Amino acid sequence: MSDGQMVHMAPMRVAVIAASSLVRASLQTLVEANPALRFLGSAADAETLVDCLAGSVPDVVVTDIEPDVSDALKTLFELAHATPALVLLSDDTDSDWILDAPPADAVAILPRNAMPAEIVVSIEAVAAGLCVLSPDILAKLLAGRKPPRETASGKPFEALTLREIEVLAMLADGLGNKEIARQLDISDNTVKFHLSSIFGKLGATNRTEAVMLGMRRGFIMV
User: Fold this and answer.
1) Are 125 and 193 in contact (CB under 8 A)?
2) Sign of the dihedral defined by the CA atoms of residues 47, 53, 57, 59, in that order
3) Phi-psi category of 137—alpha, beta or left, where left has phi over 0 and alpha has psi -120 to 50?
4) Are 164 and 194 in contact (CB under 8 A)?
5) Does pLDDT of 61 surpass 60?
6) Is this model's pTM higher than 0.85 or not?
7) DSSP for 66-135?
8) From the candidate CATH numbers 3.40.50.620, 3.40.50.2300, 3.30.160.60, 3.40.30.10, the one assigned to the domain spanning 12-143
9) Structure confidence by residue, pLDDT tens digits, 98-137
10) Domain residues of the chain, as ranges?
């Protein structure tokens, strides 16, 4: 692809599940206002949503009902062999379900009063395979997890995902966020999410340190 060619990505397909018709309407307006998103439909529960979609499978479902809706979605979308990523809006962040495995491969857990921009960024993030958690929820999850693997020196670290390794390699090549986003066909915000995850896993405080630690641990070669 030449530098003069533009990449036109299909909008991310978003559906909404919310008990309140006002909440459904508000989320629909939010999705329809963003050209990178396409609204598929909404309903008060998962089963009704599937009937409403008539076979279409969204990339992301935004819901404000109980998190066990994810199990219903997995069952109801089983025939399509696809489970949408989830953006969960909940004020019940003290419940034990937060300590269980995330209800989808990619999930965002936000407060019900999250800002519209936060919801949009979270939709983009989970569509890219990321998880989005508030600092309080993240701290709770980390407190209940097993220690990560350790290096030969005894210092703990976590493995990077394939996409994170791609981003790290581009950092090593001196690429900026916008160029990384262009080459990977993702948004600038998604690049920032990847960088944040990379820095956290490697224990790096800046881009140069991340590259050095990535080389030292064998994730990249330059």
Assistant:
1) yes
2) negative
3) alpha
4) yes
5) yes
6) no
7) -TTHHHHHHHHTGGGT---EEEEE-S-TTSGGGGS--SSSSEEEE-TT--HHHHHHHHHHHHTT--EE-H
8) 3.40.50.2300
9) 555 444 556 788 888 888 988 998 898 888 878 787 666 6
10) 12-143, 162-216
CA distance 180 to 186: 8
Q: Report domain 162-216's class.
A: mainly alpha
Dihedral sign, Cα of residue 130, residue 64, residue 59, residue 188: negative
Match 């820095």 to its residue by tokens: 199
Give, in order, the Cα–Cα distances in Å from 109 to each of 26, 102, 203: 18, 10, 24
Q: Is the predicted pLDDT of residue 152 greater than 50, yes or no?
A: no
User: How long is the chain?
Assistant: 222
CA atoms of 175 and 38, how far apart (whole Å): 30
